[in-house]
Write a structure and sequence with these properties.
Number of domains: 5
CATH superfamily of the largest domain: P-loop containing nucleotide triphosphate hydrolases
Distance between the termini: 102 Å
Oligomer: single chain
Strand content: 15-25%
Shape: elongated
CATH topology of the largest domain: Rossmann fold
Helix content: 25-40%
Length: 981
């Protein structure tokens, strides 16, 4: 080996150590310390068996000039009471950090003991010295006489190549920047006698400088960058070499490119530049299931010297040709700059592999300095030639309310495992790639509908893996399945049944039963056909027509149809409010005289011990009240029924109630809920009613609450509302009077604002102030204090009617409303009309009866305590009494009282359904006169706010059943505050 190759070879990455320079022994494990207005540094090199060490300790200025150890201590670091401590927060913070590093290596001292910086096991110590210098902390050398100390910026390595007549002169050395030196100041050359400190973390050396006539020794300390540390000895002890002219080509092509990146090469203009070509290799390996492994490797030529500029050019060219989405984000090839976004190793599957093979590889092959290498043959990907074919079938049902559907998919004759398809759809994949390499899109068309079905199915009910769970009652979904694909086997049988419900039955689908004597209107005829179709296919439903459109008549038509067609030999069970039980008998006698109707009006004790089963054996229809149904549920459950009819089904709107539970467990093969207002306060009431007629259709209460109720009621989520409408639409039939009974007489509604008498107002205001303080203190915890809050609101409503209702001990104060009521009744009766008077409060209703009777008018009266209700109702319908006073709870539903054409509502309520039901006792089919409704509202009282609240909340049922706007009638904390304002 020539002289220049031997000397230069020590600098290259594959060189062992510098010739004649043994590697520095690893320093012993460290210790440490810190602090003061000056830091004294001591370089210790007097032990030939130990590496050099650099120690530090705090010093303070002497009054006479210079520095002293006395009065300085590491324990002072971090305290600010003394003036001789670090002058700035930054110095204090940096010294505290240095002391913490020392203590982490178990060094501790409260004195001015030396801290061995080289024993601190962290390169951070050298950075801290530089930062302390920048923070203005003075450094002092421990010497005799005392010297100076300079902490330099980290050293740099530079290789200088200069062309000469007979070849090249090469030198290499270390340089340290001079702190606080003006721009352009030459760097300090580090002498070869400099000693490494702390595993090559820094260098230290002494120099002598002339200061006037005085010679001063200066201790220099400079950190060593971590990347330079492995090459430190080679650079520090590099001797100048001469490369003969004959060896220059070899030097520039083989040696110069291999110089470590951390060494800067500076060459004169006449030195030949090495030609190093940077290439990017793309290594592609096909894997199983048509996946690809892609590796990105830099090929940098001899020595692997990196040219970041050339790499950037290649990377930019690659990025320019790669389509978006071809590669996953993150990572980079080899040690590429992070901005490239190219992964070092990527596993591409599915469409990522297809896009890479079909678009990326051809593009990459045309990029200069990029080579593509494929191990073996690339998979043969191809798009499907025909649309996918979907086939649905049902597994053997394990639950009468659900079908678990298998979904078979074939593409170009190749089967697709549904689990794979299901997973891809749920994850939102755009395509699916089959084992054969065929791929097809999953977005749009039939798959968009299938995704919606999967999401809805997963949201409402847990299905076995690889299946789609569908409610047997979800007729809309079955129609969607037929549109999406082919329905076969057991699923086909049920799909046909469900499809019959979604089609509007023609007038000839189900001939009217001969035993029905009524003439049905067209919409009633359609309603009967819908009910008959439901029954024939084992589906329940909700008949939610407006009040007064003949829901009872349509149901009687169904019962006649079932009996005449021999569809069941069992009787129907009708459960209704007590006040309506007699109506079912009278309506049946009038319109279906052939039906044997038995009404249950008392428990077994009052029936002489006759069992429900015995009554049912001799009947086609058994009618009972909700109260008696609860009391004798075991007997009802022991009877086979043709179907269960729940009249005014809002009576079981609470799914936690006993009545709901008994209806749910009766076991009837067909359940019909009849209610003009299946939703009054919140959507959970709708869930309760629908779950009785179609168990499982809307999932569990919790799932329904999360999926539908909260998004609709709180967030006004129109998408969820539309999904709910769509889901229940086939099983809910609702027609309004405006839609189907346009020949009904006009209904005029008027709010009469009543000015309370001065005495009544004064008494009301005093009571209001007392209750307001109470309620506003309770409303912060509405769920816990609901009972007390509603009691106060009820008392305020009563006080607006008659102050004597809330405080009978007060001196009598005439009720302004009773005065107005008497005048109204006088005028109505004088003109030959009859009137219904409603109130929620029976005590006030009785007071109204006394006043109206005292005015000379004959009255009928009905509240919850009334016995022989049917007789009372019939006496009004067939008699001459012009006034019928009715409590809302006892007679607000189920009655037909078209003999009256006036209604008076004495006290408003924030639930609009309650009042509307009452008013529709008279405004219904059979009414021939215009109907006038008066609502009496006391000005300046809670009643005004109730009316405003009702207007704001009206429409929850309409939003779900009639495509109305979103609203809610549930009473909230803000509502209570507005009521008490």
């Amino acid at each position: 080996m020539s002289d220049w190759t031997r000397a230069f070879g020590a600098l290259l990455p594959d060189a062992a150590t510098t010739e004649g320079e043994p590697p520095a022994p690893a320093p012993d494990k460290p210790r440490r310390a810190l602090f003061q207005p000056g830091l004294q540094l001591d370089l210790v090199t007097d032990d030939p068996d130990r590496p050099a060490t650099l120690r530090a300790r705090p010093v303070v200025p002497k009054a006479s000039g210079g520095w002293q150890v006395s009065g300085a201590a590491w324990s002072s670091v971090g305290y600010t009471q003394r003036g001789d401590l670090p002058r700035t927060r930054r110095q204090r913070r940096l010294l505290t950090e240095l002391l913490a590093l020392a203590r982490s290596d178990h060094w501790y001292s409260q004195s001015n003991a030396w801290l061995d910086l080289t024993e601190i096991d962290s390169r951070r110590v050298w950075d801290l010295l530089c930062e302390l210098r920048e923070a203005g902390l003075p450094f002092v050398a421990h010497d005799r006489p005392p010297g100076e100390a300079v902490v330099h910026d980290p050293v740099t390595a530079r290789l200088d190549v200069r062309a000469v007549d007979d070849g090249l002169d090469v030198t290499c050395g270390l340089h340290a920047g001079q702190p606080s030196a003006p721009a352009g100041t030459p760097e300090v050359k580090v002498p070869s006698r400099a000693v490494p400190l702390g595993e090559d973390g820094a260098l230290a050396w002494w120099v002598q400088e002339q200061r006037g006539r005085r010679t001063v020794r200066v201790l220099n300390v400079a950190p060593v960058p971590p990347a330079l540390a492995p090459h430190l000895a080679a650079v520090l002890h590099f001797l100048p070499v001469h490369v003969p002219a004959a060896d220059v080509p070899r030097f520039t092509s083989e040696y110069l490119p291999r110089v470590p990146d951390v060494v800067t090469v500076r060459a004169s203009g006449d030195v030949p530049r090495p030609v190093v070509r940077t290439r990017l290799r793309v290594l592609v390996t096909p894997l199983d299931d048509f996946a690809l492994e892609v590796r990105w490797v830099w090929d940098r030529g001899p020595g692997g010297r990196r040219d970041t500029g050339a790499e950037g050019v290649v990377v930019d060219a690659v990025r320019a040709v790669l389509p978006d989405g071809v590669l996953p984000a993150g990572g980079r090839p080899g040690d590429l700059p992070s901005y490239t976004g190219l992964p070092n190793v990527a596993r591409l599957a599915g469409m990522a592999a297809v896009r890479f093979a079909e678009t990326a590889l051809p593009a990459l092959e045309g990029v200069e300095d990029v080579s593509v290498e494929v191990a073996g043959e690339l998979p043969r990907y191809r798009p499907a030639q025909a649309p996918p074919v979907l086939t649905f079938d049902a597994l053997r049902p394990t639950d009468r309310d659900w079908f678990d559907l298998t979904v078979s998919v074939s593409v170009d004759g190749e089967g697709v495992p549904f689990v794979n398809l299901f997973t891809a759809l749920v994850k939102g994949k755009s395509h699916l790639v089959l084992p054969s390499g065929v791929y097809f899109p999953l977005r749009g068309g039939q798959f968009a509908d299938l995704i919606a079905l999967i999401e809805e199915s997963r949201g409402l009910e847990e299905a076995p893996e690889g299946t789609l769970r569908v409610s047997r009652y979800d007729a809309g979904v079955w129609a969607d399945l037929e549109r999406i694909g082919t329905v076969e086997g057991r699923a086909l049988e049920w799909s046909r049944a469900a499809g019959a419900v979604t089609r509007a039955p023609s007038l000839t689908d189900h001939p009217l039963p001969a035993g029905l004597t009524a003439t049905l209107r067209p919409y009633q005829r359609a309603g009967f056909g819908w009910l008959a179709t439901l029954y024939a296919n084992g589906l329940g439903g909700v008949l939610a027509d407006d009040m007064g459109l003949g829901k009872t008549l349509q149901t009687l038509a169904l019962m006649c149809h079932v009996r005449e067609q021999g569809l069941s030999r069992e009787p129907f069970l009708v459960v209704a409010p007590t006040s309506v039980v007699g109506t079912w008998r009278s309506e049946a006698e009038k319109f279906a005289p052939g039906l044997r109707v038995t009404t249950v009006t008392g428990t077994a004790g009052r029936r002489g011990g006759v069992k429900i089963g015995d009554l049912a054996a001799a009947a086609d229809v058994v009618v009972t009240s909700y109260a008696l149904f609860r009391l004798e549920h075991a007997q009802y459950r022991g009877v086979g029924w043709a179907g269960l009819v729940l009249d005014e089904a809002q009576s079981v709107k609470n799914h936690a109630s006993v009545g709901y539970g008994y209806a749910r467990t009766l076991g009837a093969p067909f359940v019909l809920a009849i209610s003009g207002t299946p939703v009054e306060n919140n959507l959970m009431e709708l869930w309760a009613v629908v779950s009785l007629v179609a168990p499982g259709l809307l999932g569990t209460p919790k799932v329904f609450n999360d999926v539908y109720r909260l998004p609709i009621e709180r967030a006004r989520d129109g998408v969820r509302l539309a999904a709910l409408r769509r889901r229940i639409a086939p099983l809910v039939l609702r027609r309004t009077k405006e839609q189907v009974a346009q020949d009904l007489p006009e209904k005029t509604e008027q709010v009469l604002e009543i000015e309370l008498s001065p005495r009544h107002r004064a008494a009301y205001q005093a009571f209001l102030q007392r209750e307001r303080r109470k309620v506003l203190g309770l409303v912060e915890d509405m769920p816990r204090n609901a009972f007390k809050i509603f009691r106060s609101l009820t008392l305020l409503r009563q006080a607006a009617l008659d102050i004597g209702l809330v405080d009978p001990d007060l001196p009598p104060v005439p009720s302004t409303k009773l005065d107005v009521l008497t005048d109204l009744v006088d005028d109505i009766v004088a003109e030959g009309h009859r009137v219904l008077v409603f109130s929620q409060f029976t005590r006030f209703l009785r007071a109204a009866r006394e006043r109206v009777t005292a005015a000379g008018h004959e009255v009928c009266y009905l509240d919850g305590s009334t016995t022989r209700r049917d007789e009372v109702v019939e006496s009004f319908r067939s008699g001459t009494a012009p006034v019928f006073l009715i409590s809302l709870k006892a007679g607000g539903t189920g009655l037909t009282l078209t003999e009256a054409d006036y209604c008076i509502v004495l006290d408003p309520w924030w639930n609009p359904a309650t009042e509307n039901q009452a008013v529709d006792r008279t405004h219904r089919i059979g009414q021939t006169r215009n109907v006038v409704v008066y609502r009496l509202v006391a000005k300046g009282t809670i009643e005004e706010k109730v009316m405003a609240l009702k207007a704001a909340k009206e429409g929850l049922a309409a939003s779900v059943l009639d495509d109305g706007e979103l609203s809610s009638t549930a009473l909230t904390e803000d509502d209570v505050r507005r009521l008490m304002a």
